[in-house]
Amino acid sequence: MRKRKKIQLGIGLAVILGAIAYIVFGGLQQAVVYFFTPQELLAKGTAVQGKAVRVGGVVEKGTLVRDPHTLKVSFTLSDGKKSLNVLFQGIPPDLFGEERGAIVEGTLQPDGTFRANTIMAKHSEEYKPHKDGSPPDPKEVYKTLLTGDRR
Amino acid sequence: MTAAIGEISAIAALLVAVAGAVSSAVALRTRNDRLVATSTGAAWALFGLVTVSAVALIYALVSNDFSIRYVAFNTTRRTPVYYKITGLWGSLEGSILLWIWMLSLFTGLVALIHRRSQKEILPAVLSVMFIVSAFFLLIAAFVASPFQHLFPVPPDGRGLNPLLEDTNMLSHPPFLYAGFVGLTVPYAFAMAALITGKLDENWIRVTRRWTLMAWLFLSIGNLIGGWWSYHVLGWGGYWAWDPVENAAFLPWLPATAFLHSVMVQERRKMLKVWNLSLIVMAFSLTIFGTFLTRSGVLSSVHAFSDGPVGIYFLSFLGIVLIASLALLAWRGDALKGQPQLDSLVSRESTLLLNNFVLVAATFTILLGTIYPLIAEIIRGVKVSVGAPYFTEMTAPLFIFLVFLMGVGPLIAWRKASLDNLRRNFLVPGATALVVGIIVAILYVRDFYPLLAITLCTFVLATVVFEFYRAIRARNRIAGEGALQALSSLFERNQRRYGGFIVHLGVVLIIMGIAVSMSYSREKEMTLKPGEGVELGRYYVQFQGMGAGEWPTHFRVWGNFQVFNQGHPLGVMSPAQRFFPIQQTPISRAVIRTSLRDDLYLVLGGFAQDGSHATVKMLLRPMVTWIWIGGVILVLGTLLAVWPFGRQGLGDEED
Fold first, then answer.
1. Which residues in chain B have Cβ-Cβ distances shorter than 8 Å to A27?
2. What is the rounded CA–CA span in Å between residue B241 and residue A33?
3. How many angstroms separate the Cα of A150 from the Cα of each of B482, B505, B525?
4. Distance CA B21, CA B601 (A)
5. How confident is the model over B517-567, as pLDDT tens digits?
């Protein structure tokens, strides 16, 4: 191959590489979803209103209400410090329930409730049966909180 | 007792691995035949000792030896024997033992198969494999030993996560490990080529079957993972871009690139550095994947524990990368002066583009996978990268790859003439165009699925066209009938024609993915008995609830009568399973499969008195094509690697 061709090829590759890097980083910036605890989210307040975020915590005992006909689900999600009212419509995943860790993805509404469009429950392999009925330690739950997810 | 045997043999294996690494390194320098024999013996001694250790663990699992922590955590007295044995890879410690078991087997096989033909480089190969073995044994013996004691001894074990009690799920890890471990062989040969300075195509030719087998295992592992996700997890999807899935998929990409680019080196003596780099990349990604899934840096559906192994894997990854790159740099001069690309319209440039796309996909997925870690380390924020990033970024790459898959195998080497292009691509191109237009008029208007279908048709047409021409040619030359011609094609050039079959499988998989991703529909409804709901061509009517006791759990199911445009198709009964150890039920989806679409029902909830049930219904077109394509891919690869006996290991010509 002649030198000129080599340079052409080099420039071509560099342009393609640059374009790909630009697209990838741009896509990454858009696709990134921030993860907060209820306390962090409520502290941010209006700064995150309307933005898609993820919130993780434990579903508080006695707060889970499901209407089988409208499929509306409401519960409060807590990190042991603050509680967040969450509204959802649909079928929550397996392993979702009171006193269990869950992550919700959605937006914080102006009235302080959180409208979730996705609920992710923990599929931790190291699940622990709670025979004594004590609620899980939020810290323990956070250890298993997902960064990746299903459903 | 069992624990002691297992532990001692693991430690002995570690010593043997270190001794083997030293003796083979010395053998390489001194060319002492007896030392070479010692190293070969060490490989089999290693395999023997690891086997003792693994069998000890299996025995402990089967005999309910709950004084061993691993056994108590991975089985119960109720667990069927089958699941007890597979508990070997139920969590971290056991799976590392399985890994090293496979690695020691492969080391022994390499020593056996290549002891004569590769006498010159075998000591270097074995040395590299012993070092990798030693690393894993170090972990198995001292860092994450499966033989740790538990005191007081519990009366019963805790058992596996019920989600993992599934035949497919249990065959998924061994396949993946076999793929990961298999990549060690071409990596070791590549390093041996660098160490000994024998930088010709020998190492590639020798490891061809090894690489293909590793690639096959990786492919099967990933396909089974998708199958399990689709059939067991009950969310209706087969791939979530979960970090753990990505970790298993990442080495597959450079391994695929490698399988293609070695042809350029064999044929044109080009891309020497590139091929070495690809195999380093693939091997490093297997270690990286293990780090990612086993260190607890990401927790997810498969994340096993916050074990102590993370730092070891990361250090080992660093060592691998530095050592490999140093060797590459050291031999840099010897690798220079290769022939250059003649034309951009040629087979080698198509293969180069294929590599470029696959490596770009690797980095795109890698970046998305580790970005949350980087963001947490650098900015202290917790973020996640959603599936849309991965789909949107990689879809164009994979679609381009389909195009290359049609062009690559037929375009001429060096420089394709206009005549060559016309002869090979006019008919398939026209076919694809016609099919694309018909599909566009009848069904599909969206850009990506339409492009994917058109290009997939193009590849299918090139494959069919090529077989047709080749069979016709053999018919003319040798007077063979169609079937006989077909078999002699595979016999004469099994890699090429096996490769075509693999491409066929990949095309079906991509069609299935493209269509099912673009045209799925779903509905969630609560129904009273007698009520029904329509979804596409189906009508689903709730009839009532049922319940019963199963060996491991209590099961509640809903009966749904399904109609296809008025014709009853039978009853589907999605269920919820109540395991004694779980607080919430695990649902069991029911799928009605056809070539056209899958109807997927999940029981979301029910009233105890049976007065209503909530059901989630998904209509996913052409998912079956993915599994069919997967089977064809496996068959094609087997056709490409199967030793038909005509030649020795790896000597066919393109």
1. 389, 392-393
2. 15
3. 48, 27, 21
4. 55
5. 999 999 999 999 999 999 999 999 999 999 998 877 889 999 999 999 889
The Cα-based distances of B543 to B76, B537, B572, B611 in angstroms read: 37, 19, 10, 10
Residue identified by tokens 């005191």 is B151
**What does the pLDDT read at residue A124?**
46
Residues of A in contact with B162 (CB under 8 A): none
Measured N-to-C along each axis, helices B208-232 and B623-641 cross at an angle, to the nearest 10 degrees, of 160
- Whether A27 contacts chain B with CB within 8 A: yes
> Do the chains contact at A28 and B605, CB–CB below 8 Å?
no
Q: What are the angstrom distances between the C-alpha of B4 and each of A63, B99, B138, B354?
A: 51, 20, 17, 51
C-alpha span between B225 and B299 (Å, rounded):
17
B231-261 residue pLDDT tens: 887 788 899 898 888 999 999 999 999 999 9
Interface check for B614 against chain A (CB to CB < 8 A): the answer is yes
Interchain pair B237, A93: CB under 8 A: no
Contact A33 B388 (CB under 8 A): no
What does R_g of chain A's alpha carbons equal in angstroms? 22
Which residues on chain B are in Cβ contact (under 8 Å) with A34? Answer: 381-383
Residues A93, B303: C-beta atoms closer than 8 Å: no
- Residue located via tokens 């009690």: B165
The answer to whether residue B374 neighbours chain A at the CB level (below 8 Å) is no
C-alpha B168/C-alpha B160 separation (Å) is 15
Burial call B586-599: b when 16+ CB within 10 Å, e when fewer: bbbbbbeeeeebbb
Q: How many CA atoms lie within 13 A of B531 on its CB side?
A: 12
Give chain B positions within 8 Å (CB) of A144: 299, 303
Name every residue whose Cβ is closer than 8 Å to that of residue B137 and which is 6 or more positions away in sequence. Answer: B10, B13, B14, B17, B50, B100
* Closest among B356, B347, B405 to A13, alpha carbons compared: B356
- A23 CB neighbours in chain B (<8 A) are 393
The whole-model pTM stands at 0.89
Q: Which residue has the tokens 């997939």?
A: B456
- Surface-to-core class of residue B5, CB atoms within 10 Å of its CB (0-12 exposed, 13-18 middle, 19+ buried): middle
Question: Is B167's Cβ below 8 Å from some Cβ in A?
Answer: no
Percent of chain B scored above 70 by pLDDT? 94
B277 inside 8 A of chain A by CB: no
Are B385 and A127 an interchain contact pair (Cβ–Cβ within 8 Å)?
no
Which bin fits B40, alpha (ψ -120 to 50), beta or left (φ > 0)? alpha
Contact A94 B304 (CB under 8 A): no
Please give the structure tokens belonging to residue B522: 């779903």
Chain A contact present for B113, CB below 8 A: no
Write out chain A residues lying below 8 Å of B341, CB-based: 1, 9
Residue from B164, B199, B185, B191 nearest B102 by CA? B185
Structure-token pair, residue A94: 């397996």
- Contact across the interface for A149 and B240, Cβ inside 8 Å: yes
Q: What is the pLDDT of residues A82-128, one digit of tens each?
A: 899 999 999 888 878 888 888 899 999 988 899 999 898 765 433 33
